[in-house]
Automatic annotation (TrEMBL):
Keywords: Hydrolase. The lineage of its organism: Bacteria, Pseudomonadati, Pseudomonadota, Betaproteobacteria, Burkholderiales. PANTHER family: HALOACID DEHALOGENASE-LIKE HYDROLASE. It comes from Duganella guangzhouensis. This is HAD-IA family hydrolase. The keyword Electron transport does not apply.
Length: 250
């Protein structure tokens, strides 16, 4: 069962859009400092996990394993749980510890005004853990602008973790809120997640400004022009460009 906060707008109608926002590298620049810190935490965890109990696993083994889990499951956490019997809560807690998270956050100004300008409900849909994503939202002053907050711990279907890009997760979300896919707009930096949403009939907006070489979206050479795939309805540099492209998302 996917868990959600129970806070609905009283004036929402069935004709208004529902925005599903990713968090990292969509609403803020996680590549600046947060992703490197998480990556280092995951590498330390995996080195211990994959080692022989005395000697940690090599960097090559760790990097290959982490990349394989992300590509296969959409979240390294799911790979660790499936293949090593590790508690998801323990892995997430160990890999999302920061000395000063607020100092690491980089984001554009005007995000609160942006969310107010976009018609319809907003749902945060993030493969990040709840504690971390709540801290980022509060620092950005955005927590009051989301009707629901779906973090990775809540992405379970039939007692199994199903993070993005799971279609089972997206279908459960739509059933839970009685949403037609055509009402939903997924706003993301990660193409595989956008493709899954589009295959279910959702509309899609691709945010590109925080993409970096070797990032989780699987893209390289960001200095070159990023071609919009057919399953992406709108490609924009920043979420702040969404109001101007709203007519392409209706």
């Amino acid at each position: 069962m996917v868990s959600f906060a129970d806070r609905d707008d009283v004036n929402i109608t069935r004709s208004t859009p529902v925005w599903l926002f990713d968090l990292d590298n969509t609403l803020h620049n996680a590549s600046h400092a947060i992703f490197p810190a998480i990556m280092a935490g995951m590498n330390r965890y995996l080195a211990r996990l994959l080692g022989d109990g005395v000697t940690p696993a090599s960097d090559d083994v760790v990097n290959a394993t982490r990349t394989m889990y992300w590509q296969r499951y959409g979240a390294t956490t799911l790979g660790v749980v499936k293949h090593h019997g590790v508690s998801a809560a323990h892995f997430l807690d160990e890999t999302h510890r920061f000395d000063d998270l607020q100092a690491m956050i980089r984001a554009e100004r005007g995000l609160r005004q942006l969310l107010r300008r976009l018609p319809g409900r907003k749902i945060l849909l993030t493969n990040a853990p709840h504690r971390y994503s709540t801290q980022v939202l509060r620092h950005l002053g955005l927590h009051r602008h989301f009707n629901h907050h779906v973090a990775v711990e809540a992405m379970t279907v039939h007692r199994q973790m199903r993070p993005k890009p799971s279609k089972l997760l997206l279908r459960r979300l739509m059933r839970r809120h009685q949403l037609a896919p055509s009402r939903c707009i997924l706003v993301e930096d990660t193409l595989v997640n956008l493709r899954a949403a589009r295959e279910l009939g959702m509309r899609t907006a691709w945010i590109t400004q925080y993409l970096t070489i070797g990032d989780s979206a699987g893209l390289a050479h960001p200095q070159k022009r990023l071609i919009r795939p057919a399953y992406v309805d709108v490609k924009v540099k920043s979420v702040r460009n969404l109001p101007a492209r709203l007519h392409h998302l209706r």
